[in-house]
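Justification of computing resources. Each target in the renewal requires a structure prediction run like the one illustrated here; the chain below, 274 residues long, is used simply to show the kind of job we budget for.
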Amino acid sequence: MTVAYNPLPRLRQDLFGLASIPFCQAPKEPYLTDDRQASLAALKDFLYYRGYAVITGKVGSGKTTLAHHLCQQLPAGKFRVMYATCGDFTAADLLGTLCSALDITAVRNKAKTLQAIDQRLSDLGARNPVLVLDEMQLAPRSILDLLRIATASTFDQKRRMSIILVGTESFLAQLQLAINESLRQRIHSYCCLAPFTADQTSAYISHCLQQAGAHHDIFAEEAIGLLHVLSGGLPRIIDTLALQALSVASDAKSQTVSLEHLQQAKASCLLPRS
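Resulting structure tokens:
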């Protein structure tokens, strides 16, 4: 017998006056604190000059969301965006992805493949290629070795493309090793995403609910306070807890998410740390 699986919790949208379900994906209009807005502006400026940039922060702080929003705002006629997650990538995989995205044929020789990539990037002219490498803290040694080799290539010297490296603080620690000094010195833009403050957590929840169609406060003030403490201000955990708390309140036919609802949500979806 096949059992259908619904990945979303039970939630009565009519009870809360919602047009869509919040917290299950990034809102169409992202919530940007002043610091994140400044980081976004700095990254946009960097892209026009090309080179290397780093986005870092704690797990769940919104690094990928910021990079995605940045790339969505780029005019297609002026930029060509390529994205790869490095968790299960090798250097050969990365070169293959680049070749595929640039419509060229990869060869076995790494140096010749880099030359072919360089020539293709040169042919693109004013159209700026942007390569986003996500989850860099999981990248194997070969990826960093390849990036170091790339820094000595023609396309680095002429800054033919923009490479945005996205990873946690452990990736930042890798960059600071002596072996990666040549790459570290070529970082032209760097931003570190801090967790939300208590006020920012409250504003983020309101923003997500408004984006989903809510016209009134749904979360009680004390529930928001506990949510901030439990999440540490990390958007990913806020989303998980807030969505589950909405489901608990929905089951109770309550139009308000109370402290008790949030405590129940914590018990059912927040895995304790070891």
